[in-house]
Amino acid sequence: MKNKDFIIKFKDNAELAMASYGYFDRLQWNIEANNNIQMKKRMEKFRTQYAKLHNLDIKKDKDIIQNTEVTLLDILNVEYNNVLGGDFSPTQAKRFFDKYDLLDFYPKFDTKNNKQIQGFHACLFQVIIKLIGKVE
Q1: d(Cα 76, Cα 2) in Å, to the nearest integer?
Q2: CB atoms within 10 A of CB 79
Q3: Which of 25, 74, 99, 110 lies 20 to 30 angstroms, CA to CA, from 83?
């Protein structure tokens, strides 16, 4: 294996390891915000941060902000670190999900009891293969 190939594999494995610590259980905020007061407050905090990052006026663009939901990119994005705990730059998060799909995850946070779970945590990613060319 050439040095360049080794470095690329090492970088990919480091990104996978870093992404596996994402709080993907926070996708549930989209669903539970209607029923749970605490989730509703968290979604409001996320939407406020979203509005600031996208230069939206809270009164003027209220419909856009209220319909905003947490996405996989947002969870890994460092710009939402204070809300979602992401560690990737926006570009790095986009490139990561251009390359991989999140198939499943075993959460490390118990939303029912609102506490951290100790022990096993796992994420299953799948490589996306893009074929470019003509189909004859």
Answers
A1: 31
A2: 17
A3: 99
Question: pTM higher than 0.85, yes or no?
Answer: no
Nearest to 21 by CA among 84, 94, 97, 115: 84
Please, is 27 exposed, middle or buried when counting C-beta atoms within 10 Å of its C-beta (0-12, 13-18, 19+)?
A: middle
pLDDT digits (tens, 9 = 90+) for 56-107: 777 777 777 777 788 787 888 887 777 787 778 888 888 888 888 888 877 6
The residue among 9, 5, 3, 22 whose CA lies nearest residue 93 is 22
Strands (E), 7-130: 100-106, 109-110, 115-116, 122-127
Classify residue 129 by its DSSP letter: -
Q: Side chain identity at 116, as an amino acid letter?
A: Q
